[in-house]
Each structure stands twice: as C-alpha cells, then as structure tokens.
Amino acid sequence: IEDYVKDYSNEELLFLLLFFLASVYVFKNVYLIYLHWWKHGFINRVQYKLEKKLLKIYLNQPFMQILKKNSAYKLRNIINETSRFAKFLISTMHLFIEIMILIGITFVIFFLQPIAAFYVLILIFFIVSIFYIFAKIKTIQWSKKRIFYSGLSMKTLMESLSSIKEIKVFK
C-alpha cells in the first residue's frame, strides 16, 4: 500500500478518500431507495391479493353460512386484518434486514476477537430468548382482545349506519 500511496500528495489522497466515501454513500442510498420501493410494492401486492382472495371466499360461501356470520366481521377481515398483516410483513422484513446486518457485524467481530464475540453472542441469545417468550405471550393476548373489540366496534358501526334509514323513515 505504501508504494501505491507515496506517488500521491496529501491533497490527492484526501480527494481520493472523499471520492470513495461519497461513492459508497451514494451507492448505499440508491440501494436503500430501491429496497424501500421494492419492499412496499411487494407488500401492496400481497395485501391486494389477500383482500381479493378473502372477498372471493366470502362471495362463494353457501347462503346459510353467509347469514350466520355478521358482515361486520367479514368487512373487518378484508380491510383491517389484511392491512395489519401487511404492517406485520413490513416489520418482519425490517427485522430480517437487521438480523442480516447483525450477522455481518458478528462475523467481523468473530474474525477480530473470537472468544469475546462468543461470550457476547451467548449473552445476546439469552436476553433475546427471554424477550421472545414474554413478547409472544403478550402479543397473543393483545391480538385476541383487539380482534374481539374491533369486530364489536365494526358491528356496532354497521348496525348504527343501517339503522339511520329506519329512523329517518319512521320519524
């Protein structure tokens, strides 16, 4: 490296270093813009297909089954739940990207300090495992409550809106 660098002045080396850093910065931002565009396009396509599939399932149900289940729940599933699933998918993609970055950093640390990296990795694994167990339990509880109250709210709203016609007619 010294043989290559000695032919350049300090200003030229500084210019080359700044050019290299600027190039890396521009490449990183172009890549992140593309990743963001692709990710949201993918999520929109998944959500659209899921909404379409749910609607098709509901439209192809037998008449008696249509009458059994309140249409507010079906509306909630088509609109709200597919949207929440899309948000979950975005979060999962973010988590996956962060895990890939963590794996890359871990490889570098293992290369530089393998023993210290091993102990840190065990500690991180232990903390993440405990967090996962508690988060999973709470998430299941909250999701069941949210689905119940969301359906109840949608049902009340639809009944209220459909009752307006009757109130106006009989008034």
Structural class: mainly alpha
Average pLDDT, all residues? 83
Number of strands: 0
Helix content: over 70%
Rg over CA atoms: 27 Å
- Please indicate the percent range of residues in DSSP E strands (runs of 2 or more): under 5%
What does the largest sheet look like?
none
Shape: elongated
**SSE pattern:** HHHHH
Q: How far from one another are the termini?
A: 91 Å
Query: Unreliable stretches, pLDDT < 50, 5 or more residues?
Result: none
How many helices? The count is 5
Tell me what you see in this structure:
With 171 residues, the protein is mostly helical. Helices cover 93% and strands 0% of the residues. The protein is built from five helices and no strands. Helix 2 runs antiparallel to helix 4 (71-112) and helix 4 (71-112) packs antiparallel against helix 5 (114-170). The radius of gyration is 27 Å and the shape is elongated. The N and C termini lie far apart (91 Å). The model has no long low-confidence stretch (mean pLDDT 83).
Features:
single chain; elongated; 0% strand; mainly alpha
